[in-house]
Amino acid sequence: MDLKQLKALVTIAETANMTRAAEVLNIVQPALSRQISMLEDEVGAILFERGRQGMILNQEGKTFLEYARRILHEVEKAKAEVRPSSGTVSGIVNVGLLPSTSDLLSSMLLRRLQQQYPEIRITITAGYAGHLQEWLEVGEIDVALLYAAKLSSSLNVQPLVQEKLWFVSLPGNGLRPDKPVTLNRMADKPIILPSRPHGLRVLVDRVGRENNLQLHVVAETNSMSVQKRLVLDGHGYTILPSIAIAEELALGHLEAAPLTDAGLSRTIVLARSRERNMTMSVKCVMQTLSECIRTGIENGGWAHAQWIAKN
Predict the structure, then answer these.
(1) pTM of the model
(2) Closest Cα to residue 310, out of 129, 102, 97, 162?
(3) What is the pLDDT of residue 86?
């Protein structure tokens, strides 16, 4: 098995056409077919269904495709790390951001990296904490912001931010920043929550169980934008950190009050896998991301958050 065979697999899957894949790889189609046949022999399984519509990945092929992409990506990262660059830091770094933080941090992070480390290339992935942790553990991303709750021992983490969660609604329901509320008081309201394994949902469920509360959950979603949209359209209330609703609060589209229940605050950590070598490019991105977060808090972009890192 070699990289040419893996590239052939990925290219055919992406183009969905043998002729087009051969053009992209700049080889003749019979040679491309031989590479796939050799790969299937090596794997010991048929990866494509061959028919009138061409070559379509079967279930075995779809499974192998994920690994092939990961291997090729790791090779590209390794080449970027070891390529001579006159002493400058270079490499490809995959960064995972929580949806509530991506608007504030993504542009700032890219701008600072371009200024300080122009040879580093980043890929930014926004996702819920549970998904980011899974991707971090299997090596699909290099560094991520996560909630501190229930983190795997395979991760190296640095706590950065502490912030309360807020109860959110349309204007006119009496929610104010200077008048905190409890989850018990709001338990009978129609609530829209993130779906599991979102870290925020884990916190809310745990506090509900500890206080014997039966929350009136009317909808769940794996999208923060959908979560806010449903509230804006009058379907109920929700629970979010203040950073996720800063713009809507400023425009008067939503109102909110902090929740005072013990446990209804989130600690955000900067995490990476203990299993993987920390390259200089990853180290530089982690440091820059921490600086961006601190700047966001200090300039008011991340209101009601507390910087708790020790450095």
Answers:
(1) 0.70
(2) 162
(3) 55
